[in-house]
Amino acid sequence: MSGGRHGMRWRPGAAVASLAVLALLAGCTGAPAPAGSPSRASPSPAPSTGPAPSGDGELRLGVLVPRAGTREFLAAPIAAGVRLAARDLGRAGGQAPRVVVRSTGDGGEDDLAEAIDALAEAGVDAIVGPATSRVAQRALPLAAARGIPLVSPSATLPVAPDEATGWILHRTVATLAQQGPALAAQLLAEGDVESVAVVAGEDAESRSLLAPLRQPLEAAGVRVEVLDAPQRGRGAAAVARRAADLRPDAVVVATQDGDGEVTAALVRALHARRLAGERLWLTATNAGDLSRRLEDGEAAGVRAVLDGVRLPRAVERRLRQVDADLASARYAAEAYDAAVLIGLAAAVAGDDGGESIAGALPGVAAGGIRCGDPAECLGVLAAGSDPDYDGLAGSLAAGADGILLDPRLTLVRYREDGTWRPIGDAVAG
Questions:
Q1: What is the pLDDT of residue 256?
Q2: Domain that residue 182 falls in
Q3: Residue 340 and residue 309: Cα distance in Å, rounded?
């Protein structure tokens, strides 16, 4: 996001706001309605200005998802979340935004450029995605050059702004660095943890989580010992032996593990050393279904902190009306929120063009009147006030870098069979 466009807002007059919002989402007009109604803070503010309108009056939401690799399973829930949001935006304001889904294979430059070109040719105004940070870093300059903002529901590593435009990656999910303090708080809350062994790799994911986890623990007087993660599952027994020699009160596995082999081997080896159960924590970089890799009881009681939130059951039922074959709802809430933010940004700007949406995105989740769904938020706007969308994922207020200020996480505990169940929520630090 270019710094000069942060906070630029189109504020419709109270008398025309409702019609303007409905017209925009219905695809009737891309031009903004007259500005100049009073704000809540001042009886006579100067009307704000933003980028020149560039939309065609029909909001199109692009979705960029993986079609191969260990993250392929995210494609269906992310696409379903966007489609459900488009349906709700349509019900709240007229014709539903059009959704265009494109997938990438290995995320290579040519493959990624082809997918973004296809979305641009389809006329999308903003993209929900990419699903991973590595793809997002490469996609951001490609999309920014075409005037298309990105809002990722699942990228958790730092992504540098686009050098040419200053545009940023917007997010609706916590970063890995934010998970560290949340996990430290859980460990400290147990009261009897004086030493922690952390199994971490050299990958970016492990290192992003390690320092923010270690700092608050050591500041509280907890001894933290870091053990190198095994490269393959067969090295897990040696790591567990070293961990047992340290006699820690808790063990955290902070490795990146795409297929779950190393995680399962570590849990099995730590279980054999009596370091599993409630003494063991997994993280969002490695927690997954262990039922096919472990014997019953080996993962029982193990806990994990996950990025993202649980969908309310009523919303999950509605999601399955969109995709009856949905196997997982992971990141569907965050994808839903990303699409709603884009729709609200277009409504606030009075224009569905990408630059207008990019300029309005930071403001639709902070500083206004709180609202929890598209209809409520569009009603706030129609009344002449600023909406502050708190979505399925909670507060979506973000800093200038696009990183959420108070994102929510999910805490889970593993059952005897190696599957997990949610046990609570945490606010990321």
A1: 87
A2: 176-307+408-427
A3: 16
State whether the Cα torsion 35-37-41-46 is positive or negative: positive
In whole angstroms, give the CA distance from residue 120 to residue 122: 5
Query: Are 263 and 183 in the same domain?
Result: yes
Question: b/e string for 22-54 if b means 16 or more Cβ within 10 A?
Answer: bbbbbbebbebbebebebeeeeeeeeeebbebe
Residue type, 70: T
Indicate the residue type of 246.
L
CA distance 267 to 291: 12
Stretches where the chain sits below pLDDT 70 are: 1-50, 94, 106-108, 429
Alpha-carbon distance 286 to 276, whole Å? 15
Reported pTM: 0.86
Among 130, 119, 60, which residue's Cα sits nearest to residue 90? 60
DSSP letter for each residue of 105-122: SS--HHHHHHHHHHHHHT
Q: What is the DSSP string of 381-406?
A: HHTTS-EEEEETTEE--B-TTS-BSS
Taking phi first (over 0 means left), then psi (-120 to 50 degrees means alpha), and beta for anything else, what does residue 136 get? alpha
Whether 354 and 54 have beta carbons less than 8 Å apart is answered as yes
CB count in 10 Å sphere of residue 90: 18
Residue 374 near residue 382 (C-beta atoms within 8 A): no
Looking at the structure, tell me whether residues 213 and 159 fall in a common domain. Answer: no
Distance of alpha carbon 418 from alpha carbon 156, whole angstroms? 25
In this structure, the answer to whether residues 387 and 325 fall within a common structural domain is: yes
Whichever domain contains 276, its CATH number is: 3.40.50.2300
Does residue 110 share a domain with residue 99? yes
Q: Which of 82, 65, 83 is nearest to 73 (CA)?
A: 65
Q: Do 250 and 317 fall into the same domain?
A: no
Distance between CA atoms of residues 212 and 220, nearest Å: 13
Domain count, the chain: 2
Q: Which residues pair with 302 in a beta bridge?
A: none
Dist. CA 392–CA 348, nearest whole Å: 20
Instruction: Based on the fold, state whether residues 170 and 180 are members of the same structural domain.
Output: no
Residue written as token pair 């970063």: 175
Residues 339 and 226 in one domain: no
Cα separation, 263 vs 265, in Å, equals 5
Give dist(CA 287, CA 407) in Å, integer: 19
Same domain as 81, residue 145: yes
